[in-house]
Design brief:
Elements: H1 3-6, E1 9-14, H2 23-37, E2 41-51, E3 55-62, E4 65-73, H3 78-81, H4 84-98, E5 101-105, H5 109-122, E6 126-130, H6 139-147, E7 151-154, H7 157-166, E8 171-173, H8 187-196, E9 204-209, H9 218-228, E10 235-240, H10 252-258, E11 265-268, H11 276-281, E12 285-288, H12 294-297, H13 302-310, E13 314-317, H14 322-325, E14 333-335, H15 340-352, H16 354-371, H17 374-385
Parallel strand pairs: 1-2, 1-5, 2-4, 5-6, 6-7, 7-8, 9-10, 9-12, 10-11, 12-13, 13-14
Antiparallel strand pairs: 3-4
Helix pairs in contact: 4-5, 9-15, 13-16
Length: about 400
Amino acid sequence: MNSIDQLRYITIIGQASLEDTHGGATRLRTMIDFFRSIGLSVNLITYSFYSDHYGVEKKNIDTDFYATTIHVPNNLPKLIKGFSVITMLKYAWKPAKRGDLLFTNFRCVISSIPTIILSKIFNKPVISDYLDIDPLIPDAIYRYVAQNSDIIFAISPQLTQKAKAYGCKNAYYISNFVDVERFRVFDEKRNQRRVELGIKNQDIVIGYAGSFWFVEGIPVLMDAFNELKNTYPNIKLAIMGGVNSTDIDTDVEKLVKEMGLEDRVILIPRQKGADVPEFLSAFDILCCPKINCDVNRLIIPVKIIEYLSMGLPTIASAVGGICDVICDKQDGLLVAPGDVESLKNAIEWVLLNPTKAEVIGKNGRKTAIDYYSLEAIDNMIKQAIEQLELKNK
């Protein structure tokens, strides 16, 4: 019998709550979808760092999915937030003891370290999910997590090699993937959201959805839009998301005012993950203007997969794993990272070539279905899990 056939319960100790909208939360939801698709009962214990209070919320999602969320106030200093690991250990103790397998976020040490501790106490195998890097965390800590993880899933070839360099013998490239039936244009929802957002029928909306972290390059997108707005009076820019940290995030609202774009930019608050496809449906062009930096050179962002799956023309910076996903002018458009002129020219090309851009959008959705859907990734994850040596069996 394969290891995967012996599994009944999985305990997930994570960083993101189900309600969060950043890439880590999206990855968490899609991994849960996979685990449930193979018949596992899921016990999720996770943090929510964007709350306005401290507390523990327990919820039965359904008969085979139980979630515990540790709410931590967003305005607390990082050092104080770190003490929430004690609460994590308390609430993860019984689920970890019961689970056949533990799953955690490799990069988030207040998730991964408790997971490793519990795996040693209860003799359980661990899968760590490697999504990005935190340059503030010493390599020695990541090396400890890597060497004590039975398997590491990494979202890019670059991170897969990094995991192996840390000492994990079983590191696998498991790309970000999405539910392609959720991430597609819904005409009814498109019309509804456009009315709600004050978008007219003739308006062409350039959209961004995601983090306001400076590495995302939102100011580059705004500069490119600013140079096009007078030539194309029917274009609007929609930016959906929110500030997580005032130290490293772009103050988009302030920037809009400074540039005098209040009547041309639509600011949309951070939305629940389930509602994101509806808002993306309301847009016409999707942009991912990431800058060239260490973090972006190591990852394939989930928003790229989501954008492609929508079937809308996608413009993205040619940095890191994005270049492995998008073939320029075939299923998306690649631009020089951080280059306003390059991004402006790509947006203008889409505006001037709507028929060709529509074909590119359709090709993008086909790429998402063929390579980055749950069905496409399913066997790779199963084959990796089957290498596990289950303990206490």
